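[Automated response] Your request has been received and processed.

Submitted sequence:
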Amino acid sequence: MAADWRTHPASTIDMPAPIALWGTEDPAPEWAGGVSANAWVEAYGVNTSTLIRVDGQCTRFALIELGGHRFIVGPTATPAEAPVLTRMLKTHPQIGAIFCVEPGTMQVRDTALDTSDAPDYHERPIDGYILSVMRGAGESAAPQALASPVGLDGGLSHVQFMEFAGMERFDAQIPREVLWRAGRGVAKFMRENPGKIALVCSERGIARPSAVAASAALQLQCGDARLRNDLATQVVAQRSEASDHHINLASRSFDLMAEFTRLLDMLRRPGRGEPRWERKVHLLRQRLPELAAAQGAAIDWQTDAGRRQAADILEVNFDRVAPLLASGGLPAGMALLWLQDEINALSGVRFLSPGYVDGHIDRISQDDIDPDSPDAVRLVSFDDYGLVCDNKYYDAASVAGWYRACLRKDGYLSNPISRVPVVALLIHEAEKARLEPQFLHPLG
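Generated structure:
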């Protein structure tokens, strides 16, 4: 696993040269490296006005801005583009790091890359990366040669190179925990190096690095709702028509990341937040004891310092606590069986107190049922505050019969006590496939 970011000495250039852009929509610019990329522009609908200009020539790297933060997004450079990439990095010391969103750019070194741990970045020598670009991915360069430094006269000592392990499949939607970690590494670098620009690239197109840059921007902006809503639009406008592909595929993941980041920001601020946000934090607290124990930490939840400590623990365990938010805080092993359209449950499910219907006999179930029974279900309705789960357990077959009677009369299932519409059933996750047919097609 890569160590924490090294602190590099400040650049001797107080005012680095501004990064020049091509500046116009041009279907056939003068390409750096002497190889035309016109077909690439046409195929992906690239906005050439944001492409970076080096020595009067156009590169395939674009400078984009998301939430006030600047990123360079591009594909991995070809051997013909290696000299211009080197010149760009030397001319603009504000470009402080290169993040490749998948491993393999350097074609494995003396030891194989360990991808058994959680997805994360691994730091590699920048000169080894430049050498691998010069020789081209998949060329005949020996692994030992790729691992050896290549002399760059110290001109790139200010640039870090990071490879991400965990995004190897090019044909799949990026999992939310992978997208979170990939963006978090970029965001961490930019927080610790104010004013620096991260170059995010991929061996396969520009949609994946665009999604990683979007994830980083969202985390840097504490889940800003306006930025979340504009991510795809901004990326398409500044980069290319096809660059929002993975952002759109992971739309729900981005919603969840925005929600999670806002909660972390609230925990790091003094005092308490709005009640509705505190309720969401309460969902995540279910996992805090075991996470804190694993790190040997005791959290005093009543203090600002304790809340900040909790935020730090939650942030590094996104993959373990985010499902609680995504499920609305359902108990472990439970699932929602939606009777009609699914309602976004990110605001959480509230559970009524045990004494609410204690000993009540209603029209659905005349007898008590063991809560651990595979046929035990609970009724979930929707009110002004979100989803609310009744505390009484019912037999699934009895609820199915009540559901059929309600459909014939009112067109929806109603709670036999409160008479409010029931939108879902809380069931044992392992029984979902077995119980679904009784409720998805109750009349036929």
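Summary generated for your ticket: The radius of gyration is 27 Å. Confidence is low (pLDDT under 50) at residues 1-13, 108-112, 138-151.
If you did not submit this request, please reply to this message.
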